[in-house]
Amino acid sequence: MVARDWQGRVMGAWAVPNSSCSHAKLEEAMALRIAMLVAKQNGWRRVEFETDCMQVVNEINREEDEVVRFTMTSDIRKLKSSFDECCFTFTKRVNNFVSHTLAKMAKHMKCSTEWKGSFPGWLLERSSRL
Q1: pLDDT tens figures, 92-113
Q2: CATH number of the domain bearing residue 14
Q3: What is the value of pTM for the model shown?
Q4: Domain tally, the chain
Q5: Which residue has the higher pLDDT, 75 or 123?
Q6: Sequence-separated contacts (24+) of 113-121 with Cβ below 8 Å
Q7: Closest Cα partner for 32 from 22, 45, 18?
């Protein structure tokens, strides 16, 4: 996950390992839920969550759930009320490169890694490709 300010600058980045799940869309919904919890913990009130999974965005925005993701998307909608402004948008994977890289990295980790304020060079380099 990557948090950016209104100018697109990286404010924080997280690599969170997840129990291996065979459903990519469920993993994406789980990542959105974690991102919402991080935003809530940081006191961010106006947020936009981007994902490269159009189907998950549509399910959340239209309140149409696939059975396999029902609990997760339902929880996401409840968390949405924690924010003054909250939206979910689709972005192409090329625009979601840093988050995608962090998600791949997290698959090989045993515990979460977090960066705030100071970031490794590879993360800054990849985030500036936008």
Answers
A1: 877 777 777 887 787 787 888 8
A2: 3.30.420.10
A3: 0.77
A4: 1
A5: 75
A6: 113/14, 113/15, 114/12, 114/13, 114/14, 114/15, 115/12, 115/13, 115/14, 116/11, 116/12, 119/10, 119/13
A7: 18
